[in-house]
Structure prediction request, 287 residues.
Amino acid sequence: MQVNSLVLSSDAAATVEPLLRWAGSKKKLLPVLLAAAPHDAERYIEPFAGSAVLFLRLGAGKAILGDFNESLIETYRIVKRYPRAVWEKASMLGNTPDDYYVIRAIPRERLNAFERAAQFVYLNRYCFNGVYRTNRAGQFNVARGKGHLFMPNLDAFKAFAGRLRAADLRCSDFEEILTEAGSGDFVYLDPPYALGDKRDRGEYGCNAFREADERRLIAALRAADRRGAKVLLSYSPAMTVLQGLKKWRRHDLTVTRNVAGFTAARRSADEVLLSNYDWPRGNILTN
Prediction:
C-alpha cells in the first residue's frame, strides 16, 4: 500500500492561513509540531479543531476535524461549500465598535445558516484577541478588540475552503471521535486546560473541559494507542494527565500566553507535548 506523507511539501498549500483567530492557537509552535508529525500516517484526526492551524500546514489527503463547538463546526461546513457567500455577507457588516455590539446582540436563532456563519467569522475577527466565550445562556459575550482588525479577503476564504475539502467535519465530543482512531492515523489534540477550582468564565463555551474530562481523555488515548494510532497531545503539565500517560514520550515547552492583550500582562506558561511514538526528527526543542 502506498502511504502519503502528511508533512506539507507544496509552498502554495503552506500559505493557507486560518480563517479564524483563536485564543490558545499553536501557530507559534508550528515548527515544533511539524517536526513531531509522523511521516507515514494516512489520515489526520484533530478532535479539538479550533482554528485548525496544524491541519492547514499538513498535506493530509484525508482528515477528521472535530469540535464540541456547534457554531464553529457549522461555520466551517458553510464556508467549505459556499466561501464566496459567507465572505460577501461578512464583508458587508460594519466594522465600527457600535456596529460590533449591534451584530453581537443578534440572536443566532433569528439568522439563517449563511448569516450565522458570517456573524461567527465577523465576531471572531473583530473580538478581543480571538477569544471564544459564552455566558450560561450560550450567548457570545466577548468585547470588541483593538488594533489592526480586518476581514480576510475572498481569496483567503476560498483557500481555506479548499483545504477543508479534505476534512470530514464533526460536531462531537472528543471521546466519540477518538473511537475511530487506529492504525494509519495521526491524532493531534490541543484541548483547553481543565479549570480545576477556577471559576468557569465561559472560555471555549461553558463547561468546555473539566477535570473529569481529563480522565476520559486518558482512557480514550490509551484505547487509540492500543489500536495503533500515533498520538500527539499538547497540554499543561497536569499531574492527572502526566501520571495517566507516564509511559509516553515527554517534551517540555515554555509558551507565551497573550490572551490578556497587554504586554505587561503576558506571561510564560509550562506546557508538555506527549506522544506515543518517537519523533521522526528527534527532539529539536530548545527552551
